[in-house]
Automatic annotation (TrEMBL):
A Pfam family matched in the record: GAF_2
Molecular function terms from GO: L-methionine-(R)-S-oxide reductase activity
Lineage: Bacteria, Pseudomonadati, Pseudomonadota, Alphaproteobacteria, Acetobacterales
Species this chain originates from: Komagataeibacter diospyri
Domain of life of the source: Bacteria
PROSITE patterns (alphabetical): UPF0067
GO cellular component terms, A-Z: cytosol
Protein name: GAF domain-containing protein
Family: Belongs to the free Met sulfoxide reductase family.
InterPro entries: FRMsr_CS, GAF, GAF-like_dom_sf, Phosphatase_reg/MetRdx
Start and end residues of each GAF domain: 26-159
Length: 159
């Protein structure tokens, strides 16, 4: 029987993300790799991925995990609220969040970080866990730095 995969420390995850996005300016490709790295690196997750801002709503982008909601209205649920407020939210108990959208009934806590380039909303990074109170302020800070790396990579080639 093989051993379970080793989890990356926060600094190792940041380094891995920086390395991958440094050579790839395509937003979708970077989002796909970031979602995979987060899903593999962080314990107790059941979903990690992105929603992309299109046509005044959030549309499902690259992710790892169970099937997800395809479209989320602006201001609705945790992701839509983050899109509207343009600030990260750590939700210890999603069932207590007003207007929570239950894409996966197994999710118990959530952290969502906006992806913003300049003043333009590009989407959100959404991470779910089946464990209540899974996410800390340290997780928020790390994920915000990961999103910053993504934005820097895709902005470097924007004219």
């Amino acid at each position: 029987m093989s051993a379970p995969p080793q989890r990356l420390r926060a600094d190792e995850l940041m380094s891995a993300v920086a390395s991958v996005v440094a050579t790839e300016p395509d937003m979708i490709a970077d989002m796909a790799n970031i979602a995979a790295m987060i899903f593999e690196a962080l314990p107790d997750l059941n979903w990690a991925g992105f929603y992309i801002w299109k046509e005044n709503q959030l549309v499902l982008g690259p992710f790892q995990g169970r099937m997800a909601c395809t479209r989320i209205a602006y201001g609705r649920g945790v992701c839509g609220t983050v899109a509207r407020e343009r600030r990260s939210l750590v939700v210890p108990d999603v069932h207590a969040f007003p207007g929570h959208i239950a894409c996966d009934a197994a999710s118990a806590s959530e952290i969502v970080v906006p992806v913003i380039a300049g003043d333009r909303l590009l989407g959100v990074l959404d991470i779910d866990s089946p464990v209540r109170d899974r996410f800390s302020d340290a997780d928020r800070i790390m994920l915000e730095k990961i999103v910053d790396l993504l934005v820097q990579a895709i902005s470097a080639t924007a004219v």
